Amino acid sequence: MGSTKYIMSMGELTRKDNSLCFRKDGKNVYIPIENTKEIYCLNEVSVNSKLLDFLGQNQMVIHFFNYYEGYSGTFYPRDYYNSGKLLIRQVKTFENSRMDIAKAIVNGIGINMSEILYHYYKHDKKEVKDTIDWLKKEFPSRVDTAVKPAELMAYEGEAWSKFYGTFKYFLPEDFIMNKRVKRPPDNPINAMISFGNTLLYTKTISAIYRTHLDQRISFLHEPAEARFSLSLDISEVFKPVIVYRTIFELVNNRRLQVDKHFDKKVNYCLLNEEGRKIFVEAFEQRMETVFMHSRLKRKVSYRTAIKLDCYKLIKFILEDEKFVPFSLKENI
């Protein structure tokens, strides 16, 4: 998994000389510092200030998750990449061009949804055609007429609802979703969506941290909603491409099964430890999947594509170059 390390078990993470040591059940597991850029704590993990200082010295990000596999928070070093000039321009862009960026993001979501569904249409799932047509024709015109971010969020919600409605045509019956339920998820498909979205959100936090953008100033989502609201913006167009593709392949190839890989309680459903390991491995493989970038004329990974979208936003903010988020159709 390269630069990302996942901790699935309860234990204690400490600094040991110039390395990291995870202690569980009386045994030590060492994590080399050289190639590690971020750590995911997917269980109860104890840390101390000595460790955090060490992580800060090495510009390493660490994400914490709660019992329900939801995001608790992120520690990242002081703003090493801060830029006062960009911060001022980012605020001005929010004031003057917020809707331009927000519309580009929502249109990008629709384009990537339709591309994902077109794969199934080509494989004889003709029932998805109505949704593809709506995403290509009616959805963009609705987005274009919006005058407030709240309208865009409503249209985006409608698009997701139609997208979810197609799952019954290409997923096994035990993975069909009646409605989207988040906190906590109530069935296997909701559990995977929540977990995958959170992983992608935190990947985006790490990507933005390594640019000069300010995480708090977003364009589609309200900045007051969450401290890292820009990560919500940037990650949106990648959800169909990274999260949902991962889910569909795991389910349709029977690598994840309801009776083996989920813990179902009275009012919630979560991936168990084995399920999380399988999902994380597939998610990381998807992040590292490469495609030929049509503008750069070279192969890039989806991990790099997230960072490139951050740079596109910076170009818009500083040079007024049109912001076009990642498109699965155009491979840019």
Per-chain topology:
Blueprint: E1 4-7, E2 11-16, E3 19-24, E4 27-31, E5 38-41, E6 45-46, H1 49-57, E7 61-65, E8 71-75, H2 84-122, H3 129-145, H4 149-164, H5 188-209, H6 229-236, H7 239-252, H8 258-261, E9 262-264, E10 269-271, H9 273-288, E11 290-293, E12 298-301, H10 302-319
Parallel strand pairs: 1-5, 2-6, 5-7
Antiparallel strand pairs: 2-3, 3-4, 7-8, 9-10, 11-12
Organism: Eisenbergiella tayi
Subunit structure: Homodimer, forms a heterotetramer with a Cas2 homodimer.
Keywords: Antiviral defense, DNA-binding, Endonuclease, Hydrolase, Magnesium, Manganese, Metal-binding, Nuclease
Helix and strand pattern: EEEEEEHEEHHHHHHHEEHEEH
Structural class, from helix and strand content? alpha/beta
Low-confidence stretches: none
Radius of gyration: 20 Å
Number of helices: 10
The CATH superfamily name of the largest domain is: CRISPR-associated endonuclease Cas1, C-terminal domain
Provide the residue-averaged pLDDT.
90
Major sheet characteristics = 4 strands, mixed
Subunit structure: Homodimer, forms a heterotetramer with a Cas2 homodimer.
InterPro entries: CRISPR-assoc_Cas1 (IPR002729), CRISPR-assoc_Cas1_C (IPR042206), CRISPR-assoc_Cas1_HMARI/TNEAP (IPR019858), CRISPR-assoc_Cas1_N (IPR042211)
Keywords: Antiviral defense, DNA-binding, Endonuclease, Hydrolase, Magnesium, Manganese, Metal-binding, Nuclease
Pfam families: Cas_Cas1 (PF01867)
